[in-house]
Design a protein that fits this description.
The protein is of the alpha+beta class and 695 residues long. It has helices at residues 2-10, 24-30, 38-60, 95-114, 125-146, 173-194, 199-210, 261-269, 279-289, 361-367, 413-429, 450-453, 480-483, 494-499, 537-548, 557-563, 570-578, 588-601, 606-614, 622-637, 650-694, and strands spanning 72-76, 81-85, 337-340, 344-347, 384-385, 391-395, 432-438, 441-443, 464-470. The chain binds a DNA duplex (7 and 7 nucleotides) through residues 24, 28, 31, 279-280, 283, 286-287, 580-581, 583-584, 604-607, 622-624, 626-627, 630.
DNA sequence: CTTAGGG
DNA sequence: CCCTAAG
């Protein structure tokens, strides 16, 4: 009855409904376009730097005088957070900073003008995303060539600076473009594209390109603690960081403010330079993280999206752009050093033991091409077997365990430094092993010869890879047990490790490609390897991942946890792990707006609803609105006693019901019409057929 | 990308 | 909110 009564007034408002929707092509133009962000690259680089650090440590294997104040200012993410990694005598500056920082600066300046509120909006997931994107990119690129057998590695340092120059035949043009773009065009293009030459931008730009260290320019202080800062402030003494399964990602900033990027997004869009992680992208990343996405190269195509030409625009997966091959075609200064052992090993200069992990910018300029780190795996790349029994290969990179660092935005810069420091130190402190991967499987038997292991034939060297693996000396992570019962504390005795395994004889058939069924289920997580008892858990976990995908060599998430170098806040980690957006209950006013919009537009045009009522509320996607409507309808149907959360005024619920009823009916009609139309067609065809038959 | 719907 | 199939 009540409903009936409402009908009268309710439907009046629905007249608008007949407004035809604009053609999609038009509508799309309105949409805010988001592009890949440079910061992602930065994250990549930071990671890379860490990797490089590892390499360095490995090679030097000497005591570190952790005293000097090598101050590499690495700007990470949109955070105007300068990260000072103090380590060793060698500043972690250089490459990492150069490129990205300028964006950082831009952002910063913009913030200053706009609103310091936005400071909190810097996001971390972006970093994650980029990393993955980049890596994925590599993989997908290579995949074109090698089909299943690819692996990539975290590139040490100069990824963006032409590290891959040496041998890119096997990689896709996009990848070249990536190199190329980053190398020379990124920033400039951005500027040109935007025609913006605001002073800060210019300054930042040039300065960053020339002297990374200048990047420590003053940023607006992160003020805003009044809103959305839900994390307890973290004091220096307790770095709130954690390693989680986020691969290769360094997270900085608060965790639950994804959406707050929106505003930032808009800001940065002005420069067409950066963009916040889209939900979609997040999802992609997440998907990517999901094991199934590591099964093989074909699945990685999503990530072709990534484009590295300064992050100006994303490459869409379907787009295949083949250009600029030459540009990326290196004046490869592949510095080769031959080590005459049993085999001749050609390493790029940046390889292990070279100690040139951290090139100075100048050095990079001249040598970066030689310090590529990615293990060539594109087949005909640098790997080939000489006519004699020597195996020649180049090591462009090592995989390293990823670091996942997370600190609340309320954490101080100092604590951030410390956190990173701890992470790196712990990692290095654990002693690093080099692992050999062949055809996606770890070759554990050190006594085997190369030929015995099958690492000899010309065509399979591309399936050879190396990894850096943390040694067993690493402290056990405090969080293994809770979230991942299967994870044993890192310090756990080897026996424990074995006990969870179900295939105790694996190591005897390691080179056997047939012995690697996908291990995707949880129960099998730790079952794959029967490594020597001296192996670290990490090894095991790594293997597990490898067996999932021999094509892609990636340190599995578990690995990180096993490493768990940095004390982590479990709660944070947990939520972060889920990568789920923070729940944002709709306020009454929001509901009102939603109802209003739906009344006018109907229930089948969520995008329009979004545009109409929530255009400036970036954290409300049309899917959100749709979902909210769904729940609203549900809420309206249930008794008030069963409702939870902030009570929605009955008046609104009534409107919801009304609108729902109306639009349901409307949709039904549409369907009916359509159906009828179809029927008519069918009928007429039948007639014709009938006639035909009759004739 | 959007919609629609299940989870 | 997330995920996905479809379009």
């Amino acid at each position: 009855m009540v409903f009936k009564k409402r009908l009268d007034y309710g439907f009046d408002a629905f007249s608008v409904s007949n407004v035809p929707r604009a053609p999609r092509s038009i509508r799309r133009r309105v949409r805010t376009k988001r592009t890949v962000d440079d910061n992602q690259i930065c994250a990549f680089k930071l990671l890379a730097s860490l990797a490089g650090k590892l390499l360095e440590e490995k090679s030097e294997s000497s005591a570190v005088s952790n005293v000097s104040e090598g101050h590499g200012n690495v700007s990470i993410g949109k955070a105007v957070v300068k990260q000072e990694i103090e380590y060793d005598d060698k500043p972690l500056k250089t490459e990492c900073v150069e490129h990205l920082s300028c964006k950082e600066s831009v952002v910063a300046s913009d913030w200053t003008t706009e609103n310091s509120d936005n400071l909190k909006e810097f996001k971390h997931s972006e970093n994650n995303a980029i990393l993955k994107c980049t890596l994925a990119k590599m993989q997908s690129s290579y995949s074109e060539q090698t089909k299943g057998d690819l692996k990539f590695a975290i590139c040490k340092d100069n990824v963006a600076y032409g590290s891959f120059h040496g041998d890119l035949e096997g990689c896709s043009p996009n990848f070249r473009e990536l190199c190329d773009g980053i190398r020379d065009n990124g920033v400039k293009r951005e500027r040109e594209a935007n025609g913006l030459e605001s002073a800060p931008f210019t300054v930042a730009n040039s300065c960053s390109l020339k002297d990374p260290l200048h990047l420590s320019m003053p940023f607006p202080a992160p003020i805003n603690t009044d809103r959305d800062v839900k994390l307890p402030s973290c004091n220096d003494s307790v770095p709130n960081a954690s390693f989680s399964r986020h691969r290769n990602s360094i997270k900085l900033g608060s965790r639950d403010d994804d959406e707050n990027f929106s505003r930032f997004n808009k800001l940065s869009n002005r420069f067409m330079a950066s963009r916040p992680p889209t939900r979609i992208e997040d999802q992609r990343v997440r998907k990517f993280l999901t094991s199934k996405y590591w099964k093989g190269a074909p699945e990685l195509k999503d990530f072709e999206n990534f484009r590295a030409d300064g992050g100006i625009r994303p490459l869409h997966r379907k787009r295949k752009t083949y250009y600029n091959y030459d540009k990326c075609q290196y004046g490869t200064l592949y510095k080769r050093r031959k080590l005459f052992d049993h085999s001749s090993i050609v390493t790029s200069d940046g390889g292990i033991g070279s100690g040139s992990v951290f090139n100075s910018p100048e050095k990079v300029k001249n040598e970066n091409k030689s310090s590529s780190v990615a293990m060539s795996h594109g087949g005909q790349q640098a790997s080939h077997k000489s006519s004699d029994s020597h195996v020649k290969l180049s090591i462009k990179s090592f995989r390293i365990p990823e670091l996942y660092i997370e600190v609340p935005e309320s954490a101080t810069v100092g604590s951030l430094k410390r956190t990173v420091m701890e992470a790196v130190t712990a990692l290095l402190g654990g002693r690093i092993h080099v692992g050999v991967l062949f055809q996606g499987k770890k070759v554990r038997d050190d006594s085997r010869t190369l030929s015995q292991s099958g690492i000899s034939s010309e065509d399979n060297l591309d399936a050879l890879g190396f990894t850096l693996e943390p040694g067993p000396a690493i402290a056990p992570p405090p969080l293994c047990s809770e979230d991942h019962p299967l994870l044993l504390p890192c310090g756990a005795a080897p026996q424990n490790l074995t006990s969870t395994r179900t295939t105790p004889a694996m190591d005897t058939k390691i080179p056997d490609a047939t012995a690697d069924p996908p291990l995707l289920t949880n129960s099998e997580k730790a079952t794959d390897s029967n490594y020597k008892h001296t192996s670290s858990q990490t090894d095991i976990l790594t293997d597990q991942k490898l067996s999932e995908s021999r094509a892609l060599v990636l340190v599995p998430a578990m690995n990180v946890e096993a490493l768990s170098v940095v004390p982590a806040n479990q709660k944070i980690r947990k939520s972060e792990l889920a990568q789920r957006r923070t729940r944002r209950p709709f306020s009454v006013s929001e509901v009102e707006a939603l109802v209003q919009a739906v009344e006018e537009l109907g229930t089948g045009r969520w995008r329009d609803v979004k545009l109409r009522a929530f255009e400036n509320v970036d954290h409300r996607t049309y899917v959100d609105l749709k979902d909210k409507w769904k729940t609203l309808v549900h809420t309206a149907k249930i008794s008030p006693q069963q409702r939870r959360g902030e009570p929605v005024p009955q008046e609104l619920l009534d409107r919801v019901m009304t609108a729902h009823a109306y639009w349901s009916q409307y949709q039904a009609k549409q369907q009916g019409k359509h159906h009828i139309r179809t029927l008519r067609i069918t009928a007429s065809q039948a007639d014709r057929n009938g006639v035909m038959v009759a004739i």
